[in-house]
């Protein structure tokens, strides 16, 4: 098995770009988009909500801290030269995430209260067996793919719990959380129970321990992580270029909304009728309206009332005159 294969497949799943200051993702699939300074920008209707640049930066800082902590932990616990680095941060669906994984692989289920949902830590099984070989005094390297023995399972759980402690410390700047290790699965079959369209945030890490090398992934629920990064990202200091980009975006949105056509309806009050009367209606029948003459009509958009008006005409066209909103009668 090629231990680096998961990372290669993740990179192929979308256009992922990494810079010294940020890790960003561009995964648009639809051809419908908006035209900006850089041309037509794709829009993915499956992901109407995306992490903003400042939110991705917060996650990048936390995940890079986690990677450094895990690298130091593996070096000291395994007594082998170890290096862990962040490769990419992606916004995927569960179905797409499953496609990036090899089978069998070692997947740890993590409880991240108060963050809801299910968090997953995935490590190539051969690399995990290499961890155990180092812990037991072996040279590491390529290992057989097999379930853990009764002696190996507690050793690996102890190492994973130490790694989760590093994750909790890395996330301190975002939220106070104490990750707890749950069950350990040996394949992706149990992930089929998750709704395939649910969004997740996937952080990929290049992990090197001695001669063993793989790409590990940390999968967090998007819906639960978005409020966390939003709360912490509101007070971030932005550069002049970012502030200018925000002003331009605000002006473009305001201009677009001001010129967008909207269907407006002027309505009488509803009439209550029996089903047999509705079915028996014929051309020429008169349906009495329960709308008082002195009460203005409602002006609505998408069933939301925003004004009141009285009917009239302007030249040869029917029209309505917007009037003050009538005060509701207060009942004793």
Description:
- The chain contains eight helices and 14 strands.
- It has two domains: 5-246, Chemotaxis protein chec (3-Layer(aba) Sandwich); 265-277 and 286-323.
- 33% of the residues lie in helices and 28% in strands.
- The longest helix has 26 residues, at 53-78.
- α1 (5-13) packs across α3, α2 runs antiparallel to α5 (152-170) and α2 (53-78) crosses α6 (222-233).
- The strands form four sheets. Strands 5-9-10-7-6-8 form a six-stranded antiparallel sheet, sandwiched between helices.
- The chain has 332 residues and is an alpha+beta fold.
What's the short version?
The protein is an alpha+beta fold.
How many domains make up the 3D coordinates? 2
Radius of gyration: 29 Å
- Summed over residues and divided by their number, the pLDDT gives a mean of 80
CATH class of the largest domain: Alpha Beta
CATH homologous group name of the largest domain: CheC-like
The DSSP helix count reads: 8
Largest sheet: 6 strands, antiparallel
Roughly how much helix do the residues carry, as a percent range?
A: 25-40%
- Going by CATH, the architecture of the largest domain would be 3-Layer(aba) Sandwich
H/E series:
HEEEEHEHEEHHEEEHHEHEEE
* Unreliably modeled segments: 1-37
What would you call the structural class?
alpha+beta
Query: What portion of the residues fall into strands of 2 or more residues?
Result: 25-35%
List the SSEs and their pairings.
Elements: H1 5-13, E1 15-18, E2 23-26, E3 33-36, E4 39-42, H2 53-78, E5 82-93, H3 94-100, E6 106-111, E7 119-123, H4 125-135, H5 152-170, E8 180-185, E9 199-209, E10 212-221, H6 222-233, H7 240-259, E11 265-267, H8 275-279, E12 297-301, E13 304-314, E14 317-323
Antiparallel strand pairs: 1-2, 3-4, 5-9, 6-7, 6-8, 7-10, 9-10, 11-12, 12-13, 13-14
Helix pairs in contact: 1-3, 2-5, 2-6
């Amino acid at each position: 098995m090629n231990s680096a294969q998961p990372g290669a497949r993740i990179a192929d799943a979308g256009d992922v770009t990494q810079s010294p200051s940020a890790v960003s993702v561009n995964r648009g699939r639809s051809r419908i988009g908006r035209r900006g300074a850089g041309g037509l920008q794709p829009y993915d209707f499956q992901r109407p909500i995306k992490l903003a640049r400042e939110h991705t930066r917060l996650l990048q800082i936390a995940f890079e801290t986690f990677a450094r902590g895990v690298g130091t932990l593996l070096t000291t616990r395994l007594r082998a030269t170890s290096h862990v680095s962040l490769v990419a941060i992606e916004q995927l669906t569960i179905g797409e995430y499953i496609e990036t994984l090899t089978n069998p692989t070692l997947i740890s289920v993590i409880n991240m209260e108060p963050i809801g949902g299910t968090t997953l830590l995935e490590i190539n099984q051969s690399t995990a067996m290499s961890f155990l070989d180092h812990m037991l005094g072996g040279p590491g390297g390529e290992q057989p793919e097999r379930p853990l023995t009764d002696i190996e399972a507690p050793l690996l759980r102890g190492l994973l719990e130490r790694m989760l402690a590093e994750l909790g410390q890395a996330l301190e700047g975002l939220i106070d959380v104490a990750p707890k290790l749950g069950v350990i699965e040996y394949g992706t079959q149990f992930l089929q129970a998750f709704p395939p369209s649910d969004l997740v945030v996937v952080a990929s890490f290049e992990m090197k321990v001695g001669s063993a090398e793989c790409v590990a992934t940390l999968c967090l629920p998007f819906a639960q992580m978005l409020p966390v990064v939003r709360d912490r990202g509101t007070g971030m200091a932005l550069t002049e270029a970012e502030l200018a980009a925000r002003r331009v975006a605000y002006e473009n949105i305001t201009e677009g909304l001001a010129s967008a056509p909207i269907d407006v309806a002027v309505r009488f009050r509803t009439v209550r009728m029996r089903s047999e009367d509705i079915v028996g209606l014929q051309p020429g029948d008169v349906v009495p309206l329960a709308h008082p003459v002195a009460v203005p009509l409602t002006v609505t958009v998408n069933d939301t009332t925003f004004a009141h008006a009285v009917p009239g005409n302007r030249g040869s066209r029917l029209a309505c005159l917007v009037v003050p909103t009538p005060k509701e009668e207060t009942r004793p």
